[in-house]
Amino acid sequence: MDERQNTTSKSHKVLLVNRSGGAFSGVVDVLSFDVAEILLETELGMLLIKGQDLHVNRLSLEKGEVDIEGRIDSLVYSEVKSAGKQAESFFGRLFK
């Protein structure tokens, strides 16, 4: 029951503009990024952004905000129980 209450109190926003850029809030950490993928840990779980020519334009972890540009093809969320353990298993599944 506590888990649901904590989830509703957290804030995460995504603003996507013409699939060519986006602004994300509620970001806890940027775990990895390159021109094809950006992996963010957000207040509400892991967010994998896939696309082409992706670049992080602005990063403010103090405010929990990230701005990116490039062609965005997909946004995929997954739950996070333990950040390190979940990230490893997530990458393990990607590279099988």
Structure description:
The termini are far apart. Strand 3 (27-33) and strand 4 (37-42) form a beta hairpin. The chain has helices spanning 2-9, 83-94; strands spanning 13-17, 21-25, 27-33, 37-42, 45-60, 65-78. It is 21% helix and 55% strand. It is built from two helices and six strands. It has 96 residues and is of the alpha+beta class. A six-stranded antiparallel β-sheet has the order 1-2-6-5-4-3, with no helix packed on it. The relative contact order is 0.20. The longest helix has 12 residues, at 83-94.
The averaged pLDDT comes out at 83
C-alpha end-to-end distance: 36 Å
User: Spatial order of the strands in the main sheet?
Assistant: 1-2-6-5-4-3
Specify Rg, calculated over alpha carbons. Answer: 13 Å
Give me the secondary-structure category.
alpha+beta
Helix content: 10-25%
Largest sheet report: 6 strands, antiparallel
State the order of secondary-structure elements, H for helix, E for strand: HEEEEEEH
Keywords:
96 residues; alpha+beta; six-stranded antiparallel β-sheet; 21% helix
